Amino acid sequence: MASATNTVPTNNVDAPRVLVAEDDPAVRSAVLRVLELEGYRVSVVSDGAAALAAITSSPPDAVVMDVMMPFADGLTVCREARLRGSRVPILLLTAKHEVNDRVAGLDAGADDYLVKPFSIDELLARVRALLRRRVTTEEATVLQVGDLILDAARRQVHRNGREIHLTKTEFDLLEALMLRAGLVVTRDQLYEEIWGYDFETGSKSLDVYIGYLRRKTEENGKPRMVFTVRGVGYTVKP
């Protein structure tokens, strides 16, 4: 049976709401306490089913969620939440540190990935980054560059009226570029925003996903919109 959601009271009703989903009582208590001391309104659950129910019934402003939980693991919760249309920022906690594990979490729909054991300062920095990303997305719901249109609220991309189906990581990468259309976004900036700042930047993941975006946005002979600025990064322009 899914556990009930417990909310820690706070005097600031305007403070961001953070859901903590963690089955380890010690970790759950520690994360809850740290976030509470920062002034967030915190809800806690101890399994994946309860996390999904909380995300869909009373969406928080951000989620801090363990990968390994009973009833439904964190990856399953991420995928199902995204399928249901939720755009709540999600930070996954895990003991796994391999790059492939992090990529799997991000492709499942997570926004960031933090490996245990982690420092309090890093956890708080990640949560602040999630909340900033949420505000930026809400302020720019529909982005357009030439005939390329990105609807952040609906997670849809169209070019010249044709829908382009993107994975979660592809969508986030295109959104990051379109938010700065005409400007050069550095490789380090993209790695930090899409994969987390401790991601191994020597990998080829960014180049691979840029290739995916180009193939999909250039389908049927459409001209290129995602350009490489050698030695610096990438830009989107008509």
Key words describing this protein structure:
elongated; Rossmann fold; four-stranded antiparallel sheet; 238 residues; alpha/beta; six-stranded mixed sheet; 22% strand; Arc Repressor Mutant, subunit A
What does this entry look like structurally?
It is a single chain. The protein is 40% helix and 22% strand. With 238 residues, the protein is α/β, with parallel strands linked by helices. The protein has two domains: 6-138, 3-Layer(aba) Sandwich (Rossmann fold); 140-236, Arc Repressor Mutant, subunit A. A hairpin with a 2-residue loop joins strand 9 (156-159) and strand 10 (162-164). It is elongated. It starts with 5 loop residues before the first strand and ends with a strand.
Short description:
The protein is of the alpha/beta class and 238 residues long.
| Number of helices, where a helix is a run of at least 4 consecutive DSSP H or I residues | 8
- List the helices and strands in order: EEHEHEHEHEHEEEEHEHHEE
Strand content: 15-25%
Total individual domains: 2
Alpha-beta content class: alpha/beta
Oligomer: single chain
- Output the CATH class name of the largest domain: Alpha Beta
CATH evolutionary superfamily of the largest domain: Response regulator
**Which bin fits the share of residues in helices?**
40-55%
